[in-house]
Amino acid sequence: MCGIVAYLGHKQAYPILINGLKRLEYRGYDSAGVALMQENGISLYKCRGKVSELEDYCSDKNTTSTMGIAHTRWATHGEPNDQNAHPHLSEDGKLALIHNGIVENYLVLKQELISRGYKFKSNTDTEVLVHLIQDIYKSEQVTELAEAVRLALLNVVGTYAIAILSADNPDELIVAKKGSPLLIGIGKDDYFVASDGAPIVEYTKRVVYLEDEEVAVLNLNKKLEIKNINSEAKKRAYVQKLELNLEQLEKGGFEHYMLKEIFEQPKAISDSMRGRVNTKKDVVSLGGIIEYEEKMLNAKRFIIAACGTSWHAGLCGEYLFENLVRVPVEVEYASEFRYRNPIINEDDVLIAISQSGETADTIAAVELAKSKGATVIGICNVVGSTLSRLTHAGSYTHAGPEIGVASTKAFTAQVTVLALMALCLARKKGKLSLSKYHQIINDLENIPEKITEILKLNDSIKEIAKYCADKRNAIYLGRGINYPVALEGALKLKEISYIHAEGYPAAEMKHGPIALVDEEMPVIVIATEQETYEKVVSNIQEVIARKGKIISIVSEGDTQVKKMSDFCIEIPRTEELLTPLVASVPLQLLAYHVALLRGCDVDKPRNLAKSVSVE
Ligand code: F6R
User: Which domains are seen in the chain, by residue range?
Assistant: First the structure.
């Protein structure tokens, strides 16, 4: 949430900052701003709206500078408007600050600063920080700005990734972080700072991930200096290689990132499996968890914690683990889990699932489980993210960068990794016969090809979307492992098309939701070949009797449900436990086309951000 970029060097900073912001826009896009160090001090340009609007606003401004900071915002405190956009200036205009995170005790700090005569121009929590730093810098006779920043941060409850420019120190950029991501790119003779590697990758692959409660001083005339909040200097910054390619960040000929990412699923799933399945040796091996495999084999219970789409993947994980590994699984919304004083034992294994690896609630759930002595395993897409560094062990999904705000390929890659984990543990625990194991592995290996087939239905799904586009509501139904698919389909539709959609286990309809069904209600049913197929057929009958319109996802060659449906999408057959990998794809395409027909901004849906790094 919120993206920050900064540059210090000899190149022109403005184009680097603007391009960087565009790459970070998935983190928030309700306002944007830039502060540039110029001969006569700091120049500040900011406005409500997307980065392109900031670009228009700056088109007639002097943007010549070799040092600057920039921000794209997802509003938490204060509505999206020009005043609340970052950067924020100190009262004397000599400090400019950008911030990603939340200052939870901002009201207390603000009152204190107001009583000392500070005037606030915005409603943000961030403006408190810049005044606080200025206050300490001046009133406590601190000689170095970095020291004032450190002292100010000691007063902050909450999370931050910040970058600060100072007109009095025009060669220096100060950055700090706690709970929000920040990395420093080290160029030949310049520095880059960003919330993730995307704005940096074309300039350098040498990066330092700042740790929590560290403050770094970037100065072209000195070595990179990092201290922690207690003023202890770090001996040496650990420089790592950025695992990212520029091509992965482009749209590659697709109209939207979301569509590109839907079409990338055959490759994403193959990449998730690569090197992990050895059919000759009859094993699945997940290198990242080997050291903790024993703990997983002895686990009395698995707790899966995640949010949103990743939580839906977690629900699929529950079916996979309970069916194959035969160990109880609880799937938890990370946001609820952390606050309800959960019972966590040392022989529990918590699996945290997150595409970004920066979701605040998921990270808090991980910290809680670790503090209670449980083993914590991550399933994460972004290499080097906070989650991947916090867990005891884990498996990357290797889906490649996901930029569209609506998660698609990350979901199928997460389910793939969960399936691999379940297969690995089930075999080692002796819970799965070799023949069944071979059958599932074989089906898993054929999934990419099957998705390629489904993607060929894109045009016919577009036609179905025309029927849905003017509807106000939709219901998604599924049973068994297709129930989370129904939830995921509904989430996709509501988040990008703003049509109200609900996912239900099909049999629950008659306990309430069926009251909503009339001739205006599209009911999307996942009715693939499965144990409960006949029951789903009865549930469809109940909807038809109330004049609901049926859009069904069925297995190739199905006749029964097809006959009952107003629209029908046939998908290749697969092992029942793997159906989410195929059945979710037409639902992603349906949501995409409906949103497009309704004129919505598919990649940047209103009110959302991709990386939810605040509570
Ligand atoms: C929905 C979506 C969100 C995320 C959720 C968790 O399309 O993208 O619901 O799934 O915010 O994010 P991660 O997986 O990054 O923890």
Answer: 3-247 (3.60.20.10), 250-454 (3.40.50.10490), 457-603 (3.40.50.10490)
